[in-house]
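My current task is to audit a protein record that another person submitted. What it holds is a sequence and that sequence's fold in token form. Thanks in advance; the entry in question is below.
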Amino acid sequence: AGAARPVHWKEALAQLVEGNRRFVHGETRWVPVTPQELIKLETGHHPFATVVGCSDSRVPIELIFDQGLGDLFVIRLAGNIVVDSHVQGSLEYAFAHLGTKLIVVLGHDNCGAVTAAMAKKEKRDKEPGGVRCILDHITPICAKIDHKLPHKERLGLAIEANVRESVKNVLAYPGHREAHQRGEFEVVGAVYDMHTGKVRFLDVA
């Protein structure tokens, strides 16, 4: 694991911001894990944050935040959507049993799932059934974006809107909502820039 485990969500967020800064500037400190460290992790783990990210292989979450084994509880699925009981259960497990006080919903530019959701219905209908289920959750979000905008701008806005929708869905879970109202817990959205490696956090002062 990396630095000392944060005790407050703001400290957890700061640790992620600093880790991404190191990643962007080529100053990562992650080193190969020794057998002794593996043995320690075998008995338990204490991640300081949960990240819901896309399955895209170009967005390796631990690496872009420069964190080690045991530091992050990561949930990855195409389009970083938060829509079913399996995702809910994983998020609730991290909060209730592992004590993570921060959830980051991480989208990324040029997201294939969002791009596919923006395609014409005839093209979406040709996708396999499981893929269509994912697109069905994202397409209504994309439909709210001004169709007169250039494609690149529309895609960027749709990716950000999709992240915000997942943030809203996380906060809809009773345990998360109540802890958030007490100020003990936070959910933030973010978008990863594959060109620069930088993570841009949304609505964070």
